[in-house]
Specification:
4-stranded antiparallel β-sheet
């Protein structure tokens, strides 16, 4: 085994003289002279000391083993330093990301491996040290059994179990010292592992945890609303819309994440996020054919909304300047006979269902003009799920993308201004 490791490390030294590197300006350097200079002033001394078998060379020269000969073997411990170099070359962090992306493994599972590997490595080190210090164990059992027994002792000590069946000799000072150090170090490592495990279990489902946080935040907000307006209907509406918003948009801020992408990726990402509702928005398909990428711009301005049976969506009292795109359910338009409080409603033939939209007049009416509706829009189904396009977002869109806003105007019916507004 030692010979194989020495051969691998020797080949690594030879290849290091032939391997290009990136300088501070991230330029790949191919100059043989610069490569040799960099390796000579960096890893070469450590690689040389940890690779060349000085102990075997000394054994060939000196027939007798003494304290100086045993000290030479300590140079082999420099192999541990090379582990950092191996980790850099293997790029274990990038390997973990590759496994996570291609195999769909939960990142928490990969994080769990790190503390287990650390604990196993420490247990192996304690096993070797205790085995070296315990003369009785070396003489009583075979080598594989000795290693397993010592490893069993190391884990029992680190996890503070301490069965007592394997213990150091009270007559051996070295065994007692190793045991004391193992107890202190093992307790620290075990606490470190437990802390990471608790963190992993707590964040195993980040979306669920974030959802619970959103619900808790909503409960605090509802308590404040209840103190101002104790109407139960308002609280139900707030809770219903919040639940629908999380159901459609998710618990993560997708808009902020998409903003980090370049424009060509923003379009693809936005369309992918809304792929389930795009068939219910035929208006945008018409605009997209004329201006490619327009649908992604408009979709990012839409806000999900949910209404229950009999709920008033818009009226003279509300006068919300909104364009509604219906995904599920239906609404009725009721025309009022007059503007007074005792006005009666007459049911019209205007009914809107999935894949339709209403509110043309609210968008086409100039912002500076005061609007008072002579209709009342009521949810006529058990529930109605919509996407809302506000007048303020429309104005922002017009300032930034005038052609897209003009294309929206062409799809709206201006006759609703006289039919809906007084």
């Amino acid at each position: 085994m030692n010979l194989c490791i020495d051969v691998c490390f020797g080949l690594d030294m030879i290849l290091s003289f032939q391997t290009a590197y990136f300088d501070k300006s991230q330029t790949l350097v191919f100059s043989r002279k610069l490569i040799i200079r960099k390796y000579t002033s960096g890893w070469l001394p450590i690689d040389l000391v940890s690779t060349v078998p000085f102990d075997k060379l000394a054994n060939c020269v000196f027939k007798r083993r003494n304290a100086g000969f045993r000290a030479i073997k300590l140079f082999r411990a420099m192999r541990l330093v090379r582990l950092a170099k191996i980790q850099q070359k293997l790029k274990l962090g990038e390997l973990a990301e590759h496994v996570e992306d291609n195999l769909g493994i939960n990142p928490s599972i990969l994080k769990l491996l790190k503390p287990l590997i650390v604990m196993g490595a420490v247990a192996h080190a304690l096993t070797c040290i205790f085995f070296r210090a315990s003369r009785r164990m070396r003489q009583s059992k075979k080598r594989p059994t000795q290693y397993l027994t010592t490893m069993y002792w190391a884990f029992a000590t680190m996890t503070t179990v301490g069965y007592g069946d394997e213990k150091p000799s009270l007559n051996s000072a070295s065994s007692l010292i190793v045991t004391i150090v193992s107890q202190v170090l093992g307790t620290m490592i075990f606490a470190y592992v437990i802390g990471i495990l608790v963190s992993i279990v707590t964040n195993l489902d980040q979306a669920k945890r974030q959802l619970q946080a959103e619900k808790s935040y909503l409960s605090d907000f509802l308590c404040e609303i209840h103190s101002i307006s104790p109407t139960s209907e308002l609280l139900l509406r707030v809770r219903r819309n919040h639940h629908h918003f999380l159901l459609i948009s998710g618990v993560f801020d997708e808009r902020r994440i998409v903003d980090l992408f370049p424009p060509h990726m923003q379009t693809v990402s936005t369309v992918y996020v809304h792929r389930a509702v795009l068939p219910y928005l035929p208006l945008f398909s018409t605009i997209e054919k004329k201006y490619m990428g327009a649908v992604a711009i408009i979709l990012r301005s839409l806000r999900p909304a949910s209404y229950s049976s009999g709920q008033i969506i818009n009226s003279a009292r509300i006068s919300a300047r909104e364009l509604h795109f219906i995904v599920k359910g239906s609404v009725n338009v009721l025309y009022t006979t007059c503007a007074s409080k005792c006005a009666t409603d007459t049911i019209s033939d205007e009914m809107y269902g999935p894949q339709t939209f209403f509110g043309d007049a609210m968008i086409l009416t100039p912002t500076e003009k005061r609007v008072r509706l002579k209709i009342r829009i009521v949810c006529s189904s058990r529930s109605c799920h919509c996407f809302v396009f506000c007048k303020s977002d429309y104005n922002t869109l017009r300032d930034a993308y005038s052609l897209v806003a003009q294309a929206i105007d062409e799809q709206l019916d201006p006759s609703y201004i006289k039919r809906w507004i007084r």
